[in-house]
Amino acid sequence: MQDVEKTEIQRDTSARRKRRRNRMRPLYGLLVSALVIGVGVALSMTVFFNIDTIEIDGDAPDYTAEEIAQASGVHTGDNMMRLKRADVQKNILDRLVFVDSVTVKKEFPSVLVISVTPSKAAFNLVDDSGTLQVSAAGKILKNGPETVESLPTITGFDPSTREPGQALASKDSQKDKIFQTLSEQIAKGLDCPITAVDIKDKYDIQLTFDNRIVFSMGNWSEMEYKITLAEAVLAQLPSDKVGYLSMVGDHQCSYREKDAVEKQTTAPIVTTVTDENGQLVVETDENGQPVSTTTTTETTVANDWQ
Fold first, then answer.
1. pTM
2. CB of 155 within 8 A of CB of 175?
3. Residue 117 half-sphere exposure toward CB, CA atoms < 13 A
4. Close Cβ partners of 56 (under 8 Å, ≥ 6 residues apart)
5. Residues 232-276: pLDDT tens digits?
6. Which pairing describes strands 153-155 and 121-127: parallel, antiparallel, or unpaired?
7. CA pseudo-torsion sign 75, 76, 78, 81
């Protein structure tokens, strides 16, 4: 009888131990997995995925591949897992004036690909201190007295720095936004090119199209729409016209010929109003009275689309 009780007790103890081991098994698995992952990460950050090759892609005619690689601050043997793309990009952009953008791609296990886009002068920025040549992305490329005749000229920007290689910035942050919007619009391509920009008064921005039409667009609100509207008006004018275009309300432009404005004629100014398709709607004199169509010195183009 004693032997039977002892055997039953041993069996019960063995079952409890087995259940306990089964409960602990997932924890043991987690600990082993964490250990394996930790070892793998440590090896990845030290032994594996070290850079054997640095490839330079893109066209940067002012620099050799070796100069770009050196400016990146990356060396063969560096670990790719520990490498920060943003640091590589900043190094190149800060050290190489004529590079506008940089992308960095890790091709595991051991190749780093650096692609660069060269900086190209897109604007002359002129003030009393001289001329800055800047890229479309707003990077200062040159600081000197000469301008590039083929580039649009911006006046009234008030730059806070003139150092080549630095990002263009104005003392007035609103003018930074004006520059960015203009640059984006010009980059998209305009049928009638913008040749000059005057933002001395940010509430009365002046754009010159094709060196012959001065557009008074008012303030910076809805700049994209205003430029698009001005282009629609210019498309309806003969290509040899020289004059002044200005916003009238929110959705209209008024055009006046230069000769008529300079002569300051005392004759009533005849205004031709058309719809967005250039179709005649009504003609009025300066007092709002209908008149016949003879000589038109001012044209207002109405537009109801946005």
1. 0.71
2. no
3. 11
4. 65, 68, 69, 114, 115, 116
5. 999 988 989 999 999 888 888 888 888 877 776 544 444 444 445
6. parallel
7. positive
